[in-house]
Each structure stands twice: as C-alpha cells, then as structure tokens.
User: What shape does this take?
Amino acid sequence: MNAPLRDRYPLAFRLYPYRRSADQDASTPARHSVVIVGAGPVGLALALDLGQKGTPVIVLDDHEGVGLGSRAICFAKRTLEIMHRVGAGAEMVDKGVVWQKGRVFRDRDEVFAFDLLPEEGHRCPAFINLQQPHFERFQMEAVTRAQTAGAPIDVRGKNRVDALTDMGDHVLLDIMTPDGPYRIAADYVVACDGAKSPIRERLGLGFDGRVFEDNFLIADVKMTADFPTERWFWFEPWFKSGSSALLHKQPDDIWRIDFQLGWDIDRNTELRPEKVRARVDQMLGPDVEYELDWVSIYTFQCRRMERFRHGRVLFAGDSAHQVSPFGARGANSGVQDADNLGWKLSAVLNGHAPETLLDSYDHERLQAADENILNSTRSTDFLTPKSRTSKLFRDAVLTLAREHAFARPLINSGRLSTPCVYDGSPLNTPDALEGGPARTRPGACCPDAPVGNGFLLDHLGGRFTLLSLGAVGPQIDGVTTLSLTGDALGPELADRYLGPAPQAHYLVRPDQHIAARWGSASANDIEAALRRAMGAA
Amino acid sequence: MSDLILEPNIPDPDGFYADLLAAHEGLSDDESAALNARLILILANHIGDRAVLRDALTAAKGDRP
Ligand SMILES: Cc1cc2nc3c(=O)[nH]c(=O)nc-3n(C[C@H](O)[C@H](O)[C@H](O)COP(=O)(O)OP(=O)(O)OC[C@H]3O[C@@H](n4cnc5c(N)ncnc54)[C@H](O)[C@@H]3O)c2cc1C
Assistant: This one.
C-alpha cells in the first residue's frame, strides 16, 4: 500500500490518461453505485453496459491504457453481438479479419476441417481476429461516445486499488494515484483486475486448478502472404518448428504463429530472435521476408474461484477464472460474465429486483466457467498428452483420421468459444413450447435471424422483451413487446424459434438469454416468469 | 439401447483369437500398442452407444458394470 505508481507494462495505446477527480479532494469518501477495478476487455464491457442502462459506474485502472504484446486475437460471435449492443461492434468487425473455417493437419496431410457457422442469417461472423489492444481501443471509443450521449461512465487511469474493506452496507476502496492516495465508497465492486487479481489476493480467496506442463511460443510476424483466412493447426508439423503449430491472420499484415515447445526449455534461449527466426524460417521457407512484431512464451492453466460473488464484491473475467487459450475462451467468456452481471446489478440498484438476483450471477457464470474449463482442459490434454498411453490414443486418432471419417471429430485442437446455455438456472421457467427447437430452450442465448432489413438481436436486449412469433403478445409492465407475424416472420426465425409449432412467445432477458417460452401464454404466466427471472424466490 | 454383452457372442472363438494374435505378429511392443489403440477406437465407434462403452470400460477395469 501507498507504494508509488509504476507501470507494470508498456502501453500500446494511451486511452484514459490520469485526470485528478473531485473525489480526491472530498473530506469524506464519495459514495458511488458501482466501481469496477480494471479497464481490460471485461471491465470496459461491463462499464459500457451499465452506463448505457443509466447506472453510474466508475472504472479504476492502474495504467493509462492497454498494454503492448500478444494476448487475445480471436473474438467470437457472441462477444461481437454484445459489443454491437453496447455500440462498439461495427468498428471491430470492420477492422478485424473475419473467419469461420479451420483446418487441422498432421505432418503435411489435412486430417480435419470445420466450419463454425454453417448457416446464414446472422449479423455477426463466427469469429474475427483482432489484436486485443484494438479491441479495447474500440471499447474505449464507444465509452467516449456513450459519455457524450450522457451515459454516466467515468474511467480513471493511474488509479490503483490497494485495499478493499467491506463495511456491510458498502465497500470502501483505498486508491493510489500520482497525486497520492484517496478513498471512495461503493455499493458494489466488480473485480475485473485480471488473472493475478490483487483484489482476490487481498481478500485471501483461492484460485485452484491445473497447470499444463508445456510452453507455447507466441510469435506475431509481419509479412504479406496469401494464406487463406482460416485457422490452420498442425500436429507434428512437417516443418518441425514445434510439436504443434497454429497460424492465424490478424489485421495489418500481422500473423500469429504459436509453436508448442514442451516443458523442459530454457525460456531465455528460446526467446532469442535468431532462435525464433529459425523456427519461423523452417515453417515459412527461407525466402519469405517478415519482421518479428512481438514474441513471448506462455504456460497455461485452467482454474477458477470457488464462487464469483463475495457479498458486495463480485469477480468477472480472468480474475474469476482462467483457461488455456485453445478455444479462445478467455476474453470471450469474460465479456459474457460482464453481460450476465450488468443487467442484474442495474436491476438491484434500481430496486427492481432483490439483491439475491446477484446470486444467479454466481450460479450461471460458474456453470459457464466449468464448461469452458472442461473444454479447454480436454483440448490441452489432446495437445499435450500427459502419459505414454494418452499419446498412443492421440496418435491413433490422427492416423485413423487420414482414412476414416469417424476419427475426425475426435481430433481436438481447440473447441472454440460458444455461449453457455444456462440449463437448470433458477431464473428459468420450465420449457412450455411443445416441439420447440433445442437451441432456443430456456437458458439459451437467442440465436440471431433476419428481421426486415435488419437482425433480430438489434430488437432485443437492454430490457426484458416478450418476443411473439406468429401471434401478438399481451402488454406486460416492464416488458417491451415484439410481435412478428405474417411477412415479418421469415424462414430462419421460424426454423430457430418455432420448429413445428405454429406460434410461440419468448421472454427474453436483457442479456438476450431466454428466460421462458410457451406455445400460448397468459399475462399471468408471463408475469410469473418475469418475477422468477428477476430473482424472486 | 442395448446392454453390454458379456455372454459368449463371437462365432468360432478360436478363429477370432487366432486372427487377433496374427494381427500383432512381428510387431514391436510399441507397434502392438498402437495397433490396439486404433482397434479400440474403431470398435468403439462401431458400438457408438455411450452407455455400452461406459459399461465396457468398467468391465475392462475388472469391476461390475
Ligand atoms: C497468448 C494469449 C492468447 C490469448 N488469446 C485469446 C483469444 O484469442 N481469445 C480470447 O477470448 N482470449 C484470449 N486470451 C485471454 C485474454 O487475453 C484474457 O482472458 C483477457 O485479457 C481477460 O480480460 P480481463 O479484463 O479479465 O483482464 P485483463 O485484460 O488482465 O485486465 C485487467 C486490468 O486490471 C488492471 N489492474 C490490475 N490490478 C489493478 C489494481 N490493483 N488497480 C487497478 N487496476 C488494476 C490491469 O492493469 C488491467 O488493465 C489469450 C491470452 C493469452 C495470454
């Protein structure tokens, strides 16, 4: 505490320069609704959502912007949909490299190919590749636009949180700035302070899981090349630069290359530019010209906190859970944490919902974290077989896959991030749409579909919505209605929301997840489902 | 859904056993282990029923399914 502020990493973009706040001169700590610690992708996603709902929010970060270096590049459809809703999506998709197909090779042979979005009628692509600094820059630009439009968001750079004290009816934060320390009070604190979470440490909360005994060299390389914009993955590649390799295109002629190095390596030797260049040369051939843009070595782990809610302090993103990056489930799941938490915090602070609604954040996002950890652990086990026998089966799968289709789905080079279906959530009302499609069951996130000249998701979210298809829904207090009949009910909508049913009503939460659905529903049914989705016991 | 068959089910058991050994003839231990792994995957896919496969794993470990 009270140590002077020092940057822990160099900045790629200076996005929120330090400005002295009036709170620093207050004689008693100023009281705020929500304070977010950490302006990474998760903290900023939550700030945008809360601010646009009119819930005042302060974001504190101990830097003045986003750090340099190779971190997330693959942003999934669900993340982009959320970013669209909060006004940052279009720039991301514009700048990003759009992709949806992947190929897996062993040696020189293609053994598996996949398509992550084999259907039409979605606004957002399956994935974009975009360097994390750009992602955060676009989020911050959206914050500035939202502020101009009156959203109560305040992002404070070079504000390091050094201590938290739960005072029962509020939390007191000790903050360090270039002008010295100050304090503020908050109704709720959301710790989005990353995998090393000082807040988690300070509160003495555990963070257990598995470390995978392997090192991955991540090289971002600048070159002009005409590989297709697909995810290419090699097991035991012919170019022998690692026991596996991954190639991804990023904007601005940057290519992400990952090499799997094994456990017993000397990091400093491996990071020497000539050593890195030797590996890249083997892969690309001696005549390809490129520059090394950024190089680092990572080891990966899968772990999570036991609970994400600790009274008035909630954890979201990497502070709460960490996964290996094969599957791109880190930032993508963190943004969904934010999406899950935003509307709940707003509803509780506005007095529309009991504070126990926040426990459903724990329930639903623990479920999602477990799903992400399960998937990323399985991928890592396939990539890094941890015994002779698991290597034997891995190799058997890869050998069989060349000839036999059945073995291809067993190949696991990463199962890419998809939103969790909150099956069994206490907020769900049992499914009451006979024959309704499984993908739109209660707990699922609404799949997009064309509506008029736009898309369904543009009409949902931010508030509770009663979506009626082939019928007109009743007016309910606190619920927006959207009734689609006749020509407005296109084939994609019918396929995704009706199946064989002639009509349906869906109660959609502000985070675009489905709370309830019926073939036909009375106002009473809908009101009961709404109360339940708002956390009524 | 069918149950895991643990009663005799292979016609000409001696013939099958001879085929199994013949497939491994001349292989090193590593090659045999690899062959077994491929064989297990092929058979498992043929069975395709997760419940039967789970019972088979249990039985192979020496426990009662
Ligand atoms: C090599 C690599 C590749 C990856 N690829 C992908 C990918 O393709 N897709 C994907 O979805 N994810 C990927 N990830 C994961 C992704 O980078 C993280 O999940 C994501 O950054 C987590 O965001 P966050 O906001 O939770 O935390 P962070 O981004 O870590 O942000 C935490 C913020 O809190 C600030 N902070 C910390 N302590 C304090 C304090 N005491 N006071 C104030 N502020 C503080 C930090 O300075 C920082 O700004 C990858 C990660 C790595 C390492």
In short: Chain B touches chain A at residues 33-34, 37-38, 40-42, 45 (CB under 8 Å). DSSP finds three helices and no strands in chain B. The first helix of chain B runs from residue 13 to 24.
